[in-house]
TrEMBL record:
Protein name: Protein GrpE
UniProt similarity note: Belongs to the GrpE family.
Compartment(s) of residence: Cytoplasm
Function: Participates actively in the response to hyperosmotic and heat shock by preventing the aggregation of stress-denatured proteins, in association with DnaK and GrpE. It is the nucleotide exchange factor for DnaK and may function as a thermosensor. Unfolded proteins bind initially to DnaJ; upon interaction with the DnaJ-bound protein, DnaK hydrolyzes its bound ATP, resulting in the formation of a stable complex. GrpE releases ADP from DnaK; ATP binding to DnaK triggers the release of the substrate protein, thus completing the reaction cycle.
Keyword Cytoplasm on entry: yes
InterPro entries named among the record's database cross-references: GrpE, GrpE_CC, GrpE_head
Assembly notes: Homodimer.
């Protein structure tokens, strides 16, 4: 019996879409070609930013791209260091003056004690102990707030007027005082760790 060659099926062969026979080795080559094509497609799909980043990672130190990247890195480090120092200063200042608002609210208490002591003239002996008690209370109060950095602004009649720590509320003419000297103290001023929280209110002499 005669064999029909058209009906023969190769044992190890395969047909492609056109009916042509190709072996496994050819199939492997096609697969390899497909993989290479995919890799090439992946490389081509990289954006300009990604290519630039890859270049920055592998360029030589003398390349302009490397110098540009190094400059950007150094500027970023400098900016980060400046921010760190600024935050540290702000944190230290916040801790230093954390009690300013509380101490400022206590100033009227000191003002009332000063006012009470300013009107102690011509008192009889029965009131002297009361005045001594008020004076001691004021001193204890000042010692307590001094422990938190609050001190009285230096001021006295006859001192030169200092606009940095004094506030002029009016002028007077006192022959015994020179021009621009303090003639009267209206209200005491206070400093908190070197920072003025309230100037001393005074009358200034104008010759």
């Amino acid at each position: 019996m005669t064999k029909d060659k058209n009906n023969e099926v190769p044992i190890t062969g395969l047909y492609d879409d056109e009916g042509k026979i190709f072996n496994e080795a050819q199939g492997e080559n096609l697969d390899a070609t497909d993989e290479v094509g995919e890799e090439e497609a992946t490389e081509v799909s990289l954006s300009q930013e990604e290519l630039h980043a890859l270049c920055l990672e592998s360029v030589c130190p003398e390349c302009d791209v490397f110098k540009e990247a190094e400059g950007i890195r150094l500027r970023a480090l400098a900016d980060a260091e400046n921010v760190k120092k600024r935050l540290f200063r702000e944190n230290e200042e916040m801790k230093k003056y954390a009690g300013e608002s509380v101490l400022a609210d206590l100033l009227p208490v000191l003002d009332n004690l000063d006012l009470a002591l300013a009107h102690t003239g011509n008192l009889d002996d029965a009131c002297k102990n009361f005045v001594i008690g008020v004076d001691m209370t004021r001193k204890l109060f000042l010692d307590a707030v001094k422990g938190h950095g609050l001190v009285v602004v230096p001021v006295a009649v006859g001192n030169d007027f200092d606009p940095e720590v004094h506030e002029a509320v009016g002028t007077v003419q006192e022959p015994e005082l020179a021009d621009n000297q303090i003639a009267q103290i209206i209200q005491g001023g206070y400093l908190l760790k070197g920072r003025l929280i309230r100037p001393a209110k005074v009358m200034v002499n104008k010759a």
